[in-house]
Amino acid sequence: MDKEIKGITCQVKNCKYHDESNNCHAGTIRVGDRSATSISDTACETFECCDSCECR
Asked: pTM surpassing 0.90?
């Protein structure tokens, strides 16, 4: 796993980059949607299911 991205927290426990302290270890992240006009229009596009999650 890459080093924690300082200042980036994540609550998505089934992401492979999430750790038990709610830190992100993706190395880099990408957030979309380009045409967002509110917070509900954005999402982490770096998300990948962890090995133990049921989203596979």
From this structure: no
